[in-house]
Structures are given as C-alpha cells and as structure tokens.
Write a structure and sequence with these properties.
By secondary structure, this protein is mostly helical. The protein has one domain: Growth Hormone, Chain: A, CATH 1.20.1250. It is 80% helix and 0% strand. The protein has 15 helices and no strands. Helix 1 runs parallel beside helix 5, helix 8 runs parallel beside helix 13 and helix 11 runs antiparallel to helix 12. The longest helix is centred in the last third of the chain and has 38 residues. The radius of gyration is 20 Å and the shape is globular. InterPro entries: MFS_dom (IPR020846), MFS_trans_sf (IPR036259), TM_effector (IPR010290).
C-alpha cells in the first residue's frame, strides 16, 4: 500500500528501492576512489595543474559527446544502458587498483583510465537522470532526485572518511579495489528492476544530427529551460572544482595531510546531505525559481569567502554552507528541467544538462588548476567565485521579466 504522508515517498516504489539501495553501496566506493585518485595524482606529480588536467580529461568526453548520447539514449531501454555503463566502470576501478598494487601506476595510465571513465559517464549520467521518471513517475520525481542527492552526499561524508583512513594506513589501492567491488550492488539492483521503458519511435527521415538540432532549438525557445541551463553552465564550470582546489588548499595553505583532506571533503558532504534532506521534506512543493537564483548567488559568495579562509574550522564551515547551497541549486534545476520537458525531448534536455553541469568540468578544472598553480589555492577560490558571480547576475537580469512568474508555477 502506498504511503501518502511520507517524506521519502519515492521509496514506496519497489523499482526505485532496488535502484536506491544499490546506489547507497556503490557511491561510497565512488567517493573513496575520487579522493584516492586526487591524492595519488598530487603525490605522483606535486602539480595542481596536472591534477586539474586529470579532471579535464575525465570530463572531456562528456563535453564532446553528451549531445550525441542524448539523441541515442531514448532509442534503447535505459535499464540496459545503465547495466553496461556500471559494469564498465567496475572494471576500470579494478584495473586502477591492480596498477597501484603492482606498483606500476603512472600519471599517463591515470589519464587514460580517467578518459575511459568519462566516456562511460557520458552515457551513464543522462540515462540515470531520465531513468528516474520511469521508475517513480512525475509526482515523486523531485523526491527521488532529493533522495539520490541524500545518498550521494551521505556517501560524500562516509566515503572520504573511509578513503582517507585507507590511504593513510593501507594505501590508495584499497580505495580503488573496494570501489570496483561496490558496483556489484548497483548492477544487482538494476537486474531486479521491472518496468515498461520509454523507447522513442525511430523515424526514417531524421538523422542523429537533426535530432540534436531539434533538441537545442526546443531548449532555446523555452525561457525556463534556457535560463536554467545557462545558470547551471556557469555554476558547473566555476563552482564545482573541489577535487582540484580542496587537496591543494589542504596541502599548501593549511599544511595538513590525508586525514584533514578527507575531513574537508566530509564537511562539504555534510552540508550537501543537510540540503538533500531538506529538499526531500519539501519536494511536494516542487522546484522554485527563487531558490535557484538565491543559491547560485550564495554559491559564488561562499567561493569568495573560501579564498579568504585561513584556518581548518573556517574552511570546513564554509565548505558545509557551500555544499548545502549546491544541493538546493542542483535539485531544483534538475527537477524543473525534467518536469517541464516534453517526454520526447527529456533525454536530450538532460544530455544538455549533463553537458553544462559535468561537461563544463574540463574548463573549470583546468582553470582552477592553472589559477592555483599561479596564484595559490586562496587566489583560485577567489577567482572562481568572481567568475561565477558576474555571469550569474548577467543571466538573472537578462531573463528578469513578468513572464517568468507563470513559468515557475507551471513547472511546480
């Protein structure tokens, strides 16, 4: 029986429970690998710029191929795509662990594995976003997105804490091995899901490039979609470079080691978890334009303040506040895009979302690495905040018209 007055009502769907519980296990491993890889690269090279280059290479396929992925995804069952992408990700993690255990790991190998993982994520991310609505429906979509964020950010707290301990006492190889094994849980969950997939009817007179063009034209003509995606592009490029900036700040400014790095990542995750829980409680109210605007401005301000931080406690508190705003921003943007999109365009809209949210990371990581290399971690945080704030203000002012008000209520 469906539980109506339940803040976690997406969990009343059996298919979603399989998907969610698998993610609970797998994402802890993912965060262990994230901090393990960043610290490994920084240890091997000692260069913030080369660390930023890893992020650039990892997300470069998302930048280059997201639009093509979005046009292809709706032609196949999304569950099958996810099984393939998760299996490939598992093998890539196991290969990296084997390289570390055999003491044959090199910076070039990490770049190749990062590129292959990015290529896999190019199909995984938009598929995952569009799959949510198939297993919970529109009514519980925002709650499902909020619960996904809760899981992601709980893992962001637990994963770095475990990973930092593993690196300190056992070595980074164990982070990669356990991440590889954790994919078994999500693959098992996907195999148990039974749902009727949405597969777009193939048309003989339309090619891949025409479908991409149709999706972009559809977005450009819709003010809500266009404004939201522009804000996501700015925030995704300038605000989400923590994998580069936090380890450099920990090492060069705070003069701390692995445990403090793990703690700082956990602070970011704690704030994000609180934001995700808040969104799960308020998900029935739907996405709000006012929240999107307020959060993108606050995110910029917290980046500027991070550039002025000089102690572990101040830095940790600012990261927690940053994480809180990050989740409110991304959850409202994600929900607004999916709810507002027509079904035949949803995968293409979410592929553009993946492009501007994660596909912009190569530019952001390279910029953050370059800035940290030349101006230090404090200067890099400040520049990222400044280049996030100014474009967001321009977009908000440009789209500020009375016609926006009915759009917001329609999306909700």
């Amino acid at each position: 029986m469906r539980v109506v007055n339940n803040n976690f009502h997406a969990l009343t769907h059996k298919n979603y429970r399989y998907f969610w519980f698998g993610q609970c296990v797998s994402l802890i491993g993912t965060w262990m690998q994230n901090i393990g890889q960043s610290w490994l690269v920084l240890t091997l090279t000692g260069s913030p710029l080369l660390l930023g280059l890893v992020g650039t290479i990892q997300f470069l396929p998302v930048t280059c191929f997201s639009l093509f992925a979005g046009a292809l995804i709706d032609k196949f069952p999304k569950r099958n795509i996810l099984i393939v992408t998760q299996t490939v990700s598992m093998f890539l993690a196991l290969i990296l662990s084997a390289l570390v255990f055999t003491d044959t790991v090199k910076y070039g190998y990490i770049l190749v594995l990062a590129f292959l993982l990015g290529l896999t994520n190019t199909f995984d991310m938009p598929t995952r976003q569009a799959f949510n609505i198939e297993i919970v429906g529109k009514e519980d979509l925002m709650n499902a997105i909020a619960l996904n964020s809760t899981t992601f950010n709980l893992a962001r707290i637990v994963g770095p804490a475990i990973g930092a301990g593993m690196m300190a006492y056992l070595g980074a190889g164990w982070c990669f091995l356990l991440n590889g094994l954790s994919f078994i849980a999500v693959i098992y969950g996907l195999l148990q899901i039974r749902t009727t997939p949405y597969v777009r009817e193939k048309k003989k007179d339309t090619g891949l490039l025409k479908e991409i063009k149709d999706g972009i034209v559809y977005i450009s003509k819709d003010r809500l979609l266009a404004r939201t995606l522009l804000l996501v592009a700015v925030v995704g490029t300038m605000a989400y470079n923590f994998s580069v900036l936090i380890p450099v700040f920990t090492k060069d400014v705070l003069h701390m080691q692995e445990k403090t790095y793990g703690l700082m990542m956990s602070c970011l995750g704690a704030g994000s978890l609180l934001g995700a829980l808040m969104m799960s409680f308020r998900s029935k109210k739907g996405p709000r334009l006012s929240v999107i605007i307020a959060c993108c401005l606050l995110i910029s301000v917290f980046l500027l303040l991070n550039g002025m931080a000089g102690s572990v406690y101040t830095f940790g508190l600012l990261l927690a506040l940053q994480g809180f705003c990050n989740i409110l921003f991304s959850t409202n943007c994600n929900s607004s895009l999916q709810i507002h999109s027509k079904e035949e365009y949803r995968a293409r809209v979410m592929s553009v979302y993946s492009l501007v949210f994660a596909g912009s990371t190569p530019v952001g990581n390279l910029f953050a690495g370059y800035a940290a290399d030349h101006y230090g971690a404090n200067g890099a945080f400040f520049l990222c905040g400044l280049f996030c704030l100014i474009p967001c203000l321009i977009i908000i002012i440009a789209y500020r018209k009375k016609a926006d008000e009915p759009e917001e209520s329609a999306a909700a």
